[in-house]
Amino acid sequence: MRLYNTLSRRVEEFVPAGDEVRMYVCGPNLYAPCHLGHAMSYIIFDVLRRYLEYRGYRVRHVQNFTDIEDNIILRARATGRTIQDLAEEHIELFFRQMDALGIQRAHHYPRPTQEMDAIVEMVQGLLERGYAYRADGDVYFRVLSFPDYGKLSGRDVDSLLAGARVEPGEAKEHPADFVLWKGAKEGEPAWDSPFGPGRPGWHIECSAMSLKYLGQPLDIHGGGQDLIFPHHENEVAQSEAYSGRKPFVRFWVHHGLLRLPDSPEKMTRHLGNLVPLGEALERFGADALRLFVLGSHYRSPLTYSEEALNAARAGARRLRLAATLPGGEGEPEVDPEPFRARFLEAMDDDLGTPQALAALFDLAAEINRARDEGRRAERAQAVLRELAGVLGLSLQEPTPYRADAVPFIELLIAVRQELRAQRLYALADSIRARLLELGIVLEDTPQGTRWRPRED
What we know:
- It contains 15 helices and 14 strands.
- It is α/β, with parallel strands linked by helices.
- It folds into three domains: about 20-260, 3-Layer(aba) Sandwich (Rossmann fold); about 285-390, Four Helix Bundle (Hemerythrin (Met), subunit A) (Up-down Bundle); about 405-455, no CATH class.
- A four-stranded parallel beta sheet has the order 4-3-9-10, sandwiched between helices. It has a four-stranded antiparallel beta sheet with strand order 5-6-7-8. The chain has a two-stranded antiparallel ribbon with strand order 1-2.
- A hairpin with a 2-residue loop joins strand 5 (about 130-135) and strand 6.
């Protein structure tokens, strides 16, 4: 298996340092609900983990929650709530949406407010080693003390320093230095530390928590390409400075960014140019969202479009029907192994999901051809389901994301069945028509009435 490593700027053979893959993925900031750009990131790293496990690796997966930073404090203040209440609300929503997407849960979800001892210990260690300094209650990392600064992003250090600036109220030694600890301010949460009350800077949180839960070096550290600089560059500097220059991460894996049509900016909450994840799940379903994301290579940019998502929803249905409809009894049976070989070859080549999906759709077409000819395809269907599962595809009838709507739909189906039994067909048809207006299609089969979201 080969992966592109942002640090080396080339595709390299992936071999973990130990007997398990230690993977850290940057998680969400808990001040607002997730959008489709977040889903893109978590789908990609879910597929990476699934494929590593399919290939026989043990994976220990850690993903953080950012539950203390400027946006959370501002949102809590504006709504009259505590940062803890705000964080808990969005964590609960996050898990509900990720479960609906079929995202496997990480083994640990550390949160800065619950890991303050580890953060304080790391900041103190950087101070003792001379890589950090105090200034007016804050603690800064001294960038010039780390000669390799810029090696991840590939940026020239001199140009980075020339472009840096000092914000009002900062007392840096150098404009490029970044904050490790923010001194306490009136009305903001604060924690005690040897260098004064305050709260951590954003960058130090991930370094301290990944070190605590995974050690060093990490086999994989992942996130969007927008995090390469300054967030991940700063993580490299402070982590390697703290550890005595031991390598922090062996493989840096960064994915492309999601944009709206005609927008030069990535999808982000603070700009408002986003598609809420809950809305996308309701309209298209989890398998369609996965196919939309995985239809492009993970390092490429992705542009949101209704047409692409409708096509993905139709593609999900084609795979589902090929995997589930019964075939014939004749010979020769479909041989799925050439398709499996294509799938593995694509995934081994830097997680080539577009080519892997092409192999699945070709296998589905072969299954459908065999069915039309009355030939058997059970083994091929089993392989289709197996490989689709590696991509996190459920190949099940999509259900509305709003789980609380399901009992009411099933109740209306039961009422309709009773009306049909009483030959009150006009009333029964009115229920069917009203559900269709609401986006629910009823299909009467010999096994009973089934329902699915409308796909047009």
